[in-house]
Structure formats: structure tokens, C-alpha cells
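I would like you to sit down with the record closing this message with an eye to the fold:
=====
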Amino acid sequence: MEGSQKLSDNKYSGFIRTTKSKNSEIKSSEKIALIRKGNELFNSGKYETAKRIFITTGYSDGLTRMGDYYINNKNHLDALKMYWLAPAPNQFEKISEQTAMIISKWLNEEEKVHE
């Protein structure tokens, strides 16, 4: 891989590039092995590593489970991101509506303060 950097050499190595497109560069057998590893990691509580695998492979069920995990831990923004990537439209819509209601309430409270 001429001209490419090792991940550890990249100043952005802590960031995960996310996309809704499926990664076609991963062989089917490798993808299956990665998904199994991601599930093992998720089940053993290593959520962030599992998330990286689920994002890399585009594994919808794993991304949805990550979204559920984030919801249970009151991290709605990351949950929204996982549901968007999955895609899991029902869960995404539910959180979007709840978020919109909260923002609307905040705005109404702010207006009352300035009256």
C-alpha cells in the first residue's frame, strides 16, 4: 500500500469515518469473522471496539444494538448516530421526535424567561 500511512501515524486515528455505504472491500468470509468478533466483544462489554467493527462491516443488527446500548446509558446523540447508520428508521424517528420535543420545550422556557 504505497503512499498510505499506518493508522497509528495518522493524527486523526481517534476518529471513526462513518458512512452509510457498505464497505465492498471486505471479503465475505472476513466480514462474517469480523461480525462474530464484534458480537463477542459486545457481549463481553467491550462496546467501543465492537462499534468500530459494526461500523466497518456495516452490520445493521450490531449498529442497532449499539444504539440500544447508548439509549440505556442516556447517550441519545450516539444512539441517534447508530440508528442512522444501521439504518433503523423506527428507532431513529422515535429519538428524533423526542429530541425535537425537548428542544421545543427549552425554547419555550427561554422565551418565558425573556418576557
